[in-house]
Amino acid sequence: MGEEKKEKIKVIIADDHALVREGIAKILSLEADIEILGEASDGKEAVELAKKLKPDVVLMDINMPNVNGIVATREIKKENPGVKIIALTIHEQVDYLLELIRYGISGYLLKDVTPDELIKTIRQVFSGKGVIPPSMTPKVFDEINKLAQKDEKITFNLTSREIEILRELAKGLSNKEIADKLYISEKTVKNHLTNIFQKMGVNDRTQAVLLGIKHNIIDI
Predict the structure, then answer these.
(1) What is the C-alpha to C-alpha distance for residues 147 and 152, in angstroms, rounded to an integer?
(2) Do 174 and 84 belong to one domain?
(3) How many distinct structural domains can be found in the chain?
(4) DSSP characters for 35-88?
(5) Cystine design at 42: which of 46, 66, 133, 193 (Cβ 3.0–4.6 Å)?
(6) Which of 146, 171, 189 is the last residue of a domain?
(7) Rounded distance between C-alpha atoms, residue 144 and residue 24, angstroms
(8) Does 178 map to a domain?
(9) In angstroms, rounded to a whole number, what is the distance separating the alpha carbons of residues 169 and 153?
(10) How far is residue 52's CA from residue 45's CA, in Å, rounded to a whole number?
(11) What does the pLDDT read at residue 1?
(12) Domain end among 86, 119, 146
């Protein structure tokens, strides 16, 4: 009997720099167990490709135009929770990492990783493991401890998405601008605003923002 064919790890590369995408693709193409399904130059394209091609792993740059990697991660995981996403970034910032963990990433890599580390991480997340840089582990635990020690605050039972929209209101964004930024429809934004106003007992955007600031739900 012949040797059983090994399952390939299907990967999408999302980065707004063509040279970075090409460099990663060249590295991964040398691995027999990795198949590159496609490349995306921004978050919107990454979401569309992931929906169409059904990858196992997405290598996701964080800072991309149109739709950033954080929003793209959230949308991809919402559509297909089984996709493993590895964030690729130059930022060694815990707030980025914690937000991405909340949206379901499996790995977080700094862009100065070696090719061997990148390949190893792809295989690890594909097998179900989580990977973060060892240099960031103490910072993550420090931040988690700080969050645990914070006093509970009044949130009016707002969902995380509603709080997200409230933050954008505080920046003075229109419904359309919020919809474009969060990669949702303008109608969905209006529905969220209706819920926010009802929960907070206010009648307009200004009142909602002021009340949100007063109770430390958002800041400016």
Answers:
(1) 10
(2) no
(3) 2
(4) EEEEEESSHHHHHHHHHHH--SEEEEESS-SSS-HHHHHHHHHHH-TT-EEEEE
(5) 66
(6) 146
(7) 33
(8) yes
(9) 20
(10) 10
(11) 44
(12) 146
Residue 3 located in a structural domain: no
Contact 14, 46 (CB under 8 A): yes
Domain presence at residue 194: yes
Does residue 77 fall inside a structural domain? yes
Q: Which residues of 204-218 are buried (b: 16+ CB within 10 A; e: fewer)?
A: ebeebbebbeeeebb
Helix and strand numbers, DSSP H then E, in the chain: 10, 5
CATH number, residue 178: 1.10.10.10
Which amino acid, residue 157? N
Instruction: Give me the domain span that covers residue 205.
Output: 160-214
Locate 205 and state its tokens: 């955007």
Q: Is 139 exposed, middle or buried (0-12, 13-18, 19+ CB in 10 A)?
A: middle
| Token code pair at residue 1 | 């009997």
One-letter amino acid of 100: L
On whether both 176 and 70 belong to a single domain, the answer is no
pTM attached to this predicted model: 0.66
Distance CA 21, CA 88 (A): 11
* pLDDT tens-digit readout, 20-63: 999 999 999 999 999 999 999 999 999 999 999 999 999 999 98
